[in-house]
Amino acid sequence: MRMLNVLFLCTHNSARSILAEATLNHIGAGRFKAYSAGSSPRDNQQPNPLGLQALREAGIPTDGLRSKSWDEFATPDAPRMDLVITVCDNSAREQCPYWPGHPATAHWGYADPSAVQGTDEDRLQAFRRTLAGIRHRLDLLLALPADGVEKLALQAHARALCGEQPS
Known about the structure:
The protein has 167 residues and is an alpha/beta fold. It has helices at 16-27, 49-57, 89-93, 120-142, 151-160, and strands at residues 4-10, 32-38, 83-86, 104-107. The protein has a single domain (4-160), classed as Rossmann fold.
């Protein structure tokens, strides 16, 4: 069984997509290789420190995580994606670049934890809740049978994890 490449997309690639990338790489059991990117990361964008803290608290490594543009994954020499998942509503509505190989797609919407106002603890709690939601869906993805996960089946299962109807 070959490893499946999964790309998580969000607007700035600083919170939700970073949480998903790090978590799937941690729990993917050699079945998945996760990446993340943003449609419009800001100049000098970095992963949100509270997101990195939530990951470390969960025992998930954060080494090498960085914010990047989705343009990195639309080049001919980029890793070929099997599944592209948007994790914020803004990126789900944007016109995505052409992905070589026409990967399966899904949208798993999460509120932006970096937009939460309040104390540092309130804001950290928002990242913890988002991480828990992402982890739940990724655990369900990992529970799919290792063999026979074809493109359309993968897409249907990924969409069903958030209640989206298969197309």
